[in-house]
Amino acid sequence: MIIELKKFGTILVSRPSGKEAWLAFQSTLKDVVDTEDVVVDFKEVLVLTPSWADEFLTPLRGRFGRSVTVKNTDNASVKATLEILDKNNQSSIIGMRII
Amino acid sequence: MPNSLISIGKTAKQLGTSIDTLRRWDRANRLPSVRSGPRGHRFYKQTDIDIFIRNDSSLAKQWAMDQTGIPPSNDVYCQTRDVFQARLESLQHILTGKVSESSMSLLSAVAGEIGNNSFDHNLGNWPDVMGIYFSYNLKNRNIVLADRGLGMLTTLKRVRPELRNATEALRVGFTETISGRLPEARGNGLKFVRAVITENPFTLKFQTGDASLFLKMRDKDLSISRVEEYIRGCIAIIGFEDSL
To answer: What is the pLDDT of residues B152-175, one digit of tens each?
Structure first.
């Protein structure tokens, strides 16, 4: 499945809005099997911070592991956020593949 | 011509704000106008504008340091996170075209992290005035955020009780992946801020308690000094003087 982050907004900065996005998306994720490929699409995201990403991408990686890939990560804040998450990620999942 | 009078419209353009905001600042005596002409229109002296611009960050500092907590003027006050989010979006719009797309994105992200940190760590515990002071000045090319919250030492002591002073707390906050919000295993925000500032043509002055940090591009180490002026909460001044 493809998750288009722009559908949650283009300025994704706060922890509560990341948490809310994750909770709201559970109804969509419940039908996805854990082995299915999950693509996170950052197209048109203008601003992303680790606080938002920690609440959405980190649990997503926790559930789907290496099946999660990312695309359209050219935005400077998206790149910087993914770098810091990868550097400090305490779970066993190493970095997300860029497609 | 430092003392010639400038119209309210030209002053608004110079300060990157609206005429309505200037009227409010006039009424609040924050930036007093000179009334002139038969209809008493508002005019401004360039020297007053210059003083006002230079004092932008010191206004925030004064507010953060004041013994008595009083909400700041509405144009800089974000009482709740929703207001902050809306003003952050305005900043992002204003920066578009004035700086590169990359700088716009990174500056908004850094301001967003610092501002939201204030809300994250003080929610339900604000000592007096809840919310943050948030202003930006395109002429001076800086963004100012301040809060009258608990400060980093109090917040981080919850998870690191051995911390002795604000200097240690500031260092831990900017170097270790740690969150003052147990049991959440988070705390990437200030490391992100440090990485962005040191990898781009930005600067950051950050003070909490009596500890002040100054960061600039290519800094490898943290330069923290003790200062006389004490701020219980936090103040951050993000500079983007050299960014395109």
So the answer is: 999 999 999 999 999 999 999 999
Q: What are the two backbone dihedrals, phi and then psi, of residue A40, each rounded to the nearest 5 degrees?
A: -100, 120
Closest CA to B116 of B181, B199, B212, B64: B181
Residue A15, helix vs strand vs coil: helix
**B218-240 pLDDT tens trace:** 999 999 999 999 999 999 999 99
Predicted TM-score (pTM) of the model is 0.82
What gap in Å lies between CA A45 and CA A4, rounded to an integer? 9
Instruction: Please report, for chain B, how many H helices and E strands are present, in that order.
Output: 9, 8
Please give the ipTM for the structure prediction: 0.91
| Alpha carbons B8 and B11: distance in angstroms, whole number | 5
Q: Where are the domains of chain A?
A: 2-92
CATH class name, domain B5-54:
mainly alpha
Which chain A positions have a beta carbon within 8 Å of B93's beta carbon?
none
Q: Rounded to whole angstroms, how far apart are CA atoms B74 and B76?
A: 5
Q: For an interface test with A, which of B122, B176, B181, B186 has the most A Cβ atoms less than 10 Å from its Cβ?
A: B186
Q: Give the mutation candidate from B110, B114, B116 for the A interface (greatest A CB count, under 10 A).
A: B116
CATH number 3.30.565 given to B56-239: yes
Q: Where are the domains of chain B?
A: 5-54, 56-239
Contacts of B161 (CB under 8 A, 6+ apart): none
Give yes or no for A13 touching B (CB within 8 A): yes
Taking the Cβ of residue B223 and every Cβ of chain A, the question of whether any pair is shorter than 8 Å is answered with no
